[in-house]
Structures are given as structure tokens and as C-alpha cells.
Specification:
The protein folds into three domains: 244 residues, no CATH class; 71 residues, no CATH class; 101 residues, Phosphohistidine domain (Glucose Oxidase, domain 1, 3-Layer(bba) Sandwich), CATH 3.50.30. It is built from 19 helices and 13 strands. It has 499 residues and is an alpha/beta fold. Helices cover 56% and strands 14% of the residues. Helix 4 runs antiparallel to helix 5, helix 8 crosses helix 10 and helix 8 packs antiparallel against helix 11. The longest helix is centred in the middle third of the chain and has 42 residues. Strand 3 and strand 4 form a beta hairpin.
């Protein structure tokens, strides 16, 4: 096929994309990943116009050596954020109805994923595998689409809403940050907290059948954008054994705290609204933040679940054609279908070049450009220079307050958490967190991220863990290094190097 997939409708010219990059300021999100796990939301952005009147005009994705950088521009992010929050004030039913519509999209997606998981891929003929791959990917594009409108809403929250509400409440920065973090916190548990609750219940009422059922429900949960993980029966049994050794009272206490958290959050929220006389409109804005925070968590669950099944399909393709998994993961979806149909052979040299560094831009009309090598490197250098110039000083937004107002500790910078550990009490510094960061987040005295806002994964999970968290610093991973001793002012969001 001519394009990366059958959904693409045309090309973006090289000079056009250079002008777009130069004329805009870009916000970045980054993570260990391969091309095929980033591709579904590139298509999803192009399909947004079918659901929302305001969309992102052009989004960019660079992928290099198992790591990717996603960029959306500031103007689009502010316009989309303004549309969402103003629209919620005027007609909240519209936003809630779109979330319900998305839930309906998940039905066909889960059905196709289940087919991938249970069909016995090795037994399928190439044409059957091609058909299943095409149908699964199409369902994944659809599942991604509606909630992609949320992607950069934090830009509007941080630049517009937070300053406005702070002025309305006439509060100091520290006091406001604590209130803001609490009022924007979703009361529903994250999907990781739900898995933890199920595990603790299993520890209290152990059975071999229960372990198998837990695995069947959560087999995908250890997967990331970069690799497929297997949440095995033996790992679940090991975790349960650890809980049993802690004692029944310990397990019951943690379970009670997790179950009571939603009610405690709601009660604390009511007290703060009454104490600070939060206006009706601001209460609605906070309701929107909580809705988006919960929605983003559910989207993350869908994302990780979908990635697991992409890897199942790609691993099968790799086995059939004797190709390394990383190389297969950098083939276009159209190429996967064509190689299975016998129309083409995958070019290892070309796939390796894409793995080293590739660039894809997609616009709202599903036009694309795809570049590799020096052309991709030059474009990335332009964007990175603009971002570094924009962020001066190490300061972010308080997403979780924890128990201490000032936290000191030694920095551990982590880009890829797989196989990594940190000493308890470390200051975890990372571009952004994901589910595979949780074991590190639990040990951190504080968490600092380059990206994200009050509805990000880092914000939601750090609140559940009771760990202080500063998000959206822009440059923390560039100016801090392992061994630096820093002071984190949770109230102001300022990070200071002490050595």
C-alpha cells in the first residue's frame, strides 16, 4: 500500500511540515515504545474530527531505539482545552455522552482482542492472521479516537484555569496547590488500585481457582509501549505469599484503606468547597478535571490492554518470517498485511533505519509524512531547542501533596523502569510515569515529571500512594542527574539543587 495504513488519505509535504514545526511551540510526552504501539493514536488523532468540533491540527511522533516522543502544539492544546471546559459549563451532558459513546467503542475492541488472545495464532494461515491483524488494529484506532481529545488538556488547566481559580480564591501559592490537587482528584480508584484490591481479597480468601481467574482478568497489565509483559500465575502466587507473610491484619488494614479512599476523598472535597466558598462554576470546572482524570486512567487501561495484543500479533509475524520483534514493530500496518498476503518482503535494512530514528506527522484530515535518518534528526533538534529555551528554572505544578511540605532527597532519573530499582526515599525524576513505574513510585519520597498535569497518571497514582508529586517541570530530566540532592517545595512546586 502507498501509505502506512489504509486509513491514511494523503501526504504532508516536507516544506509544509518544516513550517508547521517552526511556527509553533510544542509540548512533549515521551516513553519507551516502538512504532506500532504509537501508531494507533496517530490514526486516532486524524479521526477526531468525526466526533469533536475542535481538534488538534497536526501531531508529531518521533521514535528512536525503542523510545518515542509525542508532540502537540500549544495553540491547539489551549483551543481544545478551552472548548472542553467551556463546553462542560454550558452542557455537561455532551461530554458525559461522549464518554458513554466511547464505552460502546470498547465492546468491538475487546471482542477482537479476546479473539487475538484465544484463537491460537500459530494455527492460523497467513491470510487469516492478516485479516485478524487488520480487524484488531481498526478496532484499536476506534477505541483510541474519542478520548484523544483529552491528551493535552493540562496545558489549558495550567496556563488558564489554575491561575484564574487561584485569583478567585485569593490564596497563597502553597495553600492553593494543596486545595487544587485535592479538588481535582477523581474519587474512583485507578485500574491499578482495582487490581490491588482484587489481589488483597485473593490473599484473604486464597484458592487456586482464584489465582487463575485473577490472571485471566489481568494477564495484560505488565505490558508497556515497549514490550509485552506476562502477569503469570507464578508471579501472582508470589505476590500473594508476600501478603500472607505480612499477616491478615496488615492485609485487612490496607484493603480497608483502599476501599475507604473514594469516600474520604469526597468528604475532604466537600469540606474544602464549603471552607473556601468555591463558586458553582469553579466546582463545575473541578468536576470536569475529575471526569477527565478518571477517563484518562480508563484510557490508559485500554491502551496497555491493546498494546499487549499488538505484541501478540507482531511476535507471531516475527516468528513466521524470522524477524526480530523490534524490527517487526517498525513495519507499517499496511506492510504487515502485505507481507502476510505474500505481496512484499520486509526490508531489514529499512526497518533498522526506522528503529534508529523515524518521524511521523499526522494531521486532522489523516494526511501524513514519514521520514527517517538525518531528515528526522534535523526536525527533532529544532523542536527540542525550542522546548529547552521555553522552560527556564525548575518549577512545576503540585499534583499530590503527601504529608510533608518540604521533601529532601537524592535524585534518581529513570526513563525506562523495566529492571530498575531505586533506594527508598529517593526523588524519582522522569519524563512521565506509566503503570510500569508504580514499583518505583511506591519507594519515592517525591516524584518530579517533565510532563503531565493534575489529571495525569503521575498525579492520580501519586495521590493514591500518598507520595508528593510535582508535574510539568518541562526540563527536570535535563537539568537533574543521579546523585543530585534536591529540595522539593511541595507548596510552591519549586525544586532546588542543594549540591
Amino acid at each position: 500500500m502507498k501509505y502506512t495504513s489504509e486509513f491514511i488519505t494523503g501526504n504532508i509535504g516536507k516544506e509544509e511540515i518544516k513550517k508547521i514545526i517552526n511556527d509553533n511551540f510544542w509540548y512533549v510526552a515521551e516513553t519507551p515504545a516502538v512504532f506500532q504501539t504509537g501508531y494507533p493514536f496517530q490514526v486516532g488523532f486524524g479521526l477526531l474530527r468525526n466526533h469533536w468540533p475542535k481538534v488538534y491540527n497536526t501531531v508529531l511522533l518521533f521514535n528512536g531505539k525503542g523510545y518515542f516522543w509525542f508532540y502537540a502544539n500549544e495553540a491547539d492544546s489551549l483551543e481544545v482545552g478551552r472548548f472542553l471546559y467551556q463546553g462542560f459549563l454550558e452542557n455537561e451532558k455532551f461530554i458525559y455522552s461522549k464518554k458513554e459513546e466511547w464505552k460502546k467503542d470498547l465492546g468491538p475492541f475487546h471482542k477482537k482482542a479476546s479473539q487475538v488472545y484465544h484463537s491460537g495464532l500459530s494455527k492460523l494461515a497467513n491470510q487469516q492472521l492478516a485479516k485478524l491483524y487488520r480487524e484488531f488494529m481498526a478496532s484499536f484506532y476506534t477505541a483510541w479516537t474519542i478520548p484523544l481529545i483529552l491528551e493535552m488538556n493540562t496545558v489549558y488547566v495550567e496556563q488558564v484555569l489554575a491561575p484564574r481559580i487561584k485569583d478567585e480564591l485569593s490564596l497563597s501559592g502553597g495553600e492553593f496547590n494543596e486545595i487544587f490537587a485535592t479538588l481535582s482528584q477523581p474519587s474512583a480508584p485507578s485500574y491499578l488500585a482495582e487490581e490491588r484490591i482484587d489481589l488483597l481479597n485473593l490473599a484473604l480468601n486464597f484458592s487456586d481457582t482464584g489465582v487463575k481467574q485473577h490472571r485471566e482478568k489481568y494477564y495484560w497489565i505488565k505490558t508497556s509501549y515497549r514490550r509485552m509483559g506476562d502477569y503469570s500465575v507464578s508471579e501472582i502466587q508470589k505476590l500473594i505469599t508476600t501478603e500472607i507473610k505480612k499477616g491478615r491484619k496488615h492485609t485487612e488494614r490496607e484493603l480497608k484503606e483502599l476501599k475507604e479512599t473514594p469516600e474520604n476523598v469526597i468528604n475532604k472535597r466537600k469540606d474544602l468547597i464549603k471552607k473556601y466558598k468555591v463558586s458553582t462554576d469553579d466546582q463545575k470546572r473541578f468536576e470536569m478535571m475529575r471526569l477527565l482524570g478518571d477517563w484518562q486512567d480508563k484510557r490508559k487501561e485500554m491502551n496497555i490492554y491493546g498494546n499487549h495484543h499488538i505484541f501478540l500479533l507482531l511476535n507471531e509475524v516475527g516468528k513466521r518470517f524470522n524477524l526480530d520483534a523490534d524490527l517487526v514493530a517498525h513495519a507499517f500496518p499496511s506492510e504487515i498485511e502485505d507481507v502476510l498476503s505474500g505481496k512484499i518482503k520486509l526490508n531489514k535494512t529499512e526497518l533498522q533505519e526506522r528503529f534508529d530514528l523515524c518521524f511521523q506527522a499526522t494531521d486532522k484530515n489523516l494526511k501524513e509524512i514519514f521520514l527517517t535518518g538525518d531528515e528526522a534528526r534535523r526536525l527533532k533538534a529544532i523542536i527540542d531547542k525550542k522546548i529547552e529555551k521555553r522552560f527556564q528554572g525548575l518549577k512545576g505544578m503540585t499534583a499530590s501533596v503527601g504529608k510533608e511540605k518540604i521533601v529532601k532527597g537524592e535524585v534518581r532519573v529513570v526513563f525506562n523502569p523495566v529492571g530498575v530499582d531505586i533506594p527508598s526515599g529517593s526523588i524519582l525524576v522522569t519524563p512521565m510515569t506509566r503503570p510500569d513505574f508504580v514499583h518505583l513510585m511506591k519507594k519515592a519520597a517525591a516524584i518530579i515529571t517533565d510532563q503531565g498535569g493534575v489529571t495525569s497518571h503521575a498525579a492520580i497514582v501519586s495521590r493514591e500512594l500518598g507520595v508528593p508529586c510535582i508535574v510539568g517541570t518541562g526540563i527536570s530530566t535535563k537539568v537533574l542527574k543521579d546523585g543530585d540532592v534536591v529540595q522539593v517545595d511541595i507548596q510552591s512546586g519549586v525544586i532546588t539543587k542543594l549540591n
